[in-house]
Amino acid sequence: MSTYIIQGGSxxxxxxxxxxxxxxxxxxxAATILTEETCVITNVPDITDVRTMxxxxxxxxxxxxFRPDGTIVVTADGGLTDRAPYELVSQMRASIMVLGPLxxxxxxxxxxxxxxxxxxxxQIDMHLASLKRLGAxxxxxxxxxxxxxxxxxxAVIPLDFPSVGATENVLMAxxxxxxxxxxxxxxxxxxxxxxxxxxxxxxxxxNGAGSSVIEIDGVERLHGAEHVVLPDRIExxxxxxxxxxxxxxxxxxxxxxxxxxxxxxxxxxxxxGITVSDEGVRVTMTGRPKAVDVATLPYPGFPTDLQPMMAxxxxxxxxxxxxxxxxFENRFLYIDELNRMGADMRLDDHHAIIxxxxxxxxxxxxxxxxxxxxxxxxxxxxAEGETVVYDAGHIDRGYQDIDSKLRDLGACITxxx
Length: 417
Ligand code: UD1
Prior knowledge:
This protein is α/β, with parallel strands linked by helices. It is built from 14 helices and 24 strands.
């Protein structure tokens, strides 16, 4: 079992880089199986989820190689199979992103149902209903999604909710469908724009990515392409919140301010100084933050993936904050852990009521999921005394070398196991 041991209380200071975005890289990797030609993706973070997606691609019969410089090269020619097994899909829900590409490329898919997840029940009903609208015959049997179609046909697809994954699965299926597909109420995350740009470089015909309506005119075939993954806005946000919470001065090189607008606004409201330059984003902070209310929403709303870190920050605010989670129902598993560190938080339905305390005190804590893990790290950095963060493996799913980045900023953090 891996553990982080943190001696808290030192302000973080200095400049730190940000890796490529996990949530973009995983979908670009899934998209590579839409062509038999070679695709090259660079600036890919070396994190567990990327390693799992490589296994998924190899298991499907593609040749996927992860080079030490963060480049992934995939060739999915010849013997591509349609089977993504439970052992892989259960490790990482994003494995179901191969469903749309498999249906588009092979006309069939056999993908394990992902099942539960720590942050909520996370249905895939919208993925399946949308692919059915494109003409795929989909059944779920014995824990697997079985899909068959022949060739998909374009259709109008109104999403009940702007689901990131459903938008991406439909996008990847529709690029090879016959005729026009229109996704209404599409997700607008920067990662969707990124996926559309990669698919366009592969020869797809897509308009409107980044808006609520995406139009896709299907093409007969796609070819190989190269793509550089955009900077990870969630990693950038995590480092900025850590800088602010420790009363430090941190510049996150490569952070795209335009992807972090609401976070930056909220940090300013708490009293942090924010400077945006060509280099990235700098945060400075002295004293306790002022309390603010935050509500998560699909992009461009406040990201649910930064909600736990914001909660850790507001735990030491001057005043009471209400933090509302509107995207995932179970994203508050860190509350009991932060309360063990001296926070005063209470859950009321999908609202966390946070009464700010002067200081957190270091304690042993256990990580329940990826982003909650990042919140506990940040809390440990700002707390008085020693924090031992157990089950740190969850954090490796989304952050590359987070401990060495924090050490470079002056944190006293070591890893065991
Ligand atoms: C992606 C991100 C995740 C982020 C989330 C929201 C990846 C790998 N993960 O997850 O980090 O927190 O977007 O920004 O990119 N839902 C349904 N039915 C569906 C699909 C979704 O009910 O068919 C619900 C989910 O249970 C959830 C909400 O819609 O409550 C949002 O989910 P979605 O936007 O699809 O998130 P993911 O793509 O799973």
